[in-house]
Amino acid sequence: MIISAVGFIVIAAADFAYQKFDHTKQLKMTKDEVKREYKEMEGSPEIKSKRRQLHQELQASNQRDNVKRSNVLVTNPTHIAIGLYYKKGETPLPVITLKETDAMAKRMIAIAKEEGIPVMQKVPLARALYSDGQLNQYIPGDLIEATAEILRWVASLEQSEEQ
Questions:
Q1: What ranges do the domains of the chain cover?
Q2: Which range is the signal sequence, renumbered to this chain (predicted)?
Q3: Is the pTM of the predicted complex or chain greater than 0.70?
């Protein structure tokens, strides 16, 4: 009797292990189910790539518009680009129209050159405007003198072009 009880316990333990393994196996998703669930959650890869492409095109046109709104780009040769807009009688102080770093800064500099917008390399001013200035806001008060120097340079460029 003890031998048959031990035998039943061994068989029950083996059956329990098999049942647990089989149940876990049935709960797993097939590759097709995983792909289908990913598409439902994240969207179709084709639609995602089209959306990404449209976003990049829209962003590129906005970048060009931001550069066109600027009178001058103040740069730290390649890592920072700050766009400034000032029109006497229209704005009391210069406005920061764009703030970009690294690859985007290089792109803004290239766009400015294409559009004929002056690019001035002033490392300390570019860094100060980037750290202290806010996008679409007036420049900080402590940077007025340095910025005025840049704007005088831009005005002299415009006067020499008119002559």
A1: 45-162
A2: none
A3: no
